[in-house]
Amino acid sequence: MNAAKERLLFLFTAGTLVLGGLTFSLRGSAVAQELTADSKAQANDASTTLRGNPSNYLVLLGQLHPGDTLLLEPGVYARTQKGTGLPIFNLHGVPDKQIIISGPERGPRPVFYASEGTNTVRIADSSYITIRNLDLDGQDLDVDGVKAQGVSDHITVENLYIRNHGNNQQTVAISTKATAWNWVILRSRSHRIQPDPRHNRLQHRNQAPSLSPRSSRTAYHSRSHYHPA
User: Fold this and answer.
1) What is the distance of C-alpha 170 from the center of its chain?
2) Of 141, 2, 21, 26, nearest to 84 (Cα)?
3) pLDDT tens digits, residue range 120-155?
C-alpha cells in the first residue's frame, strides 16, 4: 500500500470513529435526558408529609403541592405576628391527589382560636382540599368557623369540632356563601352555635348552606347539635 492510499484509509477510519463517537455521544445524551425527565416525573408524583406546629404552619401552607399532607401537631393555634387561623388560598390538589391538612387521628388535637375580624378557616381560589381532625373555638366573636371567601370546589371538611360561635344569628359554623361546589362535610360537630328563637332550632349553615347559583353539589354527612351554654 502506497503512502497516499494509507493516509486516505487512516482519514476515513478516523472519521468513522469520530462520527461513531458523535453518534454514541448523542444517544447517551438522549438517554440522560430521558432519565432526567423520569426522575423529575417521579419527584413530582411523590407525596410529602410536612409536620406543622403553631410557629411554622403558616409558612408550610405555601409549600403544599398535590398529594401533600400538612400534619399539625396538637397545641394552641392563635393569632401571632405571622397571622391567624387557617388561610387556604390558591391551593390546588387534583382528583387523585388531594392536599390534606389534618390533626392527629387520635389523642389531643390542634385547637384554632378565633381572632377578631377574621374567620378562622378561610378558603378561596382552592380545590381538592381535605381539612380534618381540628378543633375550632370561636370565643363568641363575630366570625365564622369555616368560610368560603372566594371560588372553591371539591373541599372536604371532616371530623371538625366547632364550638363557641354563638354570639349572634349571623355567625355560623360553616358557610359557603361564595361560589362553591362539591363541598363534603363528614362527621363534624358544633357546640354552642346560635339557635334561631323563631323556630327554636339550630341556625347555622352546616345544615342549610347558602350556595351560589353556579354551585352544583354540596353533600352533608354531619352530626350537628346545639348545646346551650
Assistant:
1) 27
2) 141
3) 999 999 999 999 999 999 999 999 999 999 999 999
Least confident of 29-38, 43-52, 66-75, 78-87: 29-38
- The CA-based dihedral angle spanning residues 214, 132, 61, 63, taken in that order and rounded to the nearest 10 degrees: -90
Q: For residues 58, 155, 70 and 87, what is the CA-based torsion angle, rounded to 10 degrees?
A: 0
Q: What is the distance between the alpha carbons of residues 104 and 69, in angstroms, rounded to a whole number?
A: 12
Classify domain 47-221 at the CATH topology level. Pectate Lyase C-like (2.160.20)
**pLDDT (tens digit, 9 = 90+) per residue, 106-125?**
999 999 999 999 999 999 99
Measured between its terminal Cα atoms, the distance across the chain in Å is 111
Domains of the chain, by residue range, sit at 1-46, 47-221
pLDDT tens for each residue of 169-205 = 788 889 988 999 999 999 888 776 554 343 333 333 3
- Residue 163 grid cell: 364550638
Rounded Cα distance between 152 and 123, Å, is 7
The alpha carbon dihedral of 103, 108, 110, 112 has a sign of positive
Question: What count of Cα atoms within 13 Å lies in the side-chain half-sphere of residue 145?
Answer: 31
Distance of alpha carbon 162 from alpha carbon 169, whole angstroms? 16
Beta strand 195-196 with 201-202 is antiparallel
* Separation between Cα atoms, residue 222 and residue 162, nearest integer Å: 12
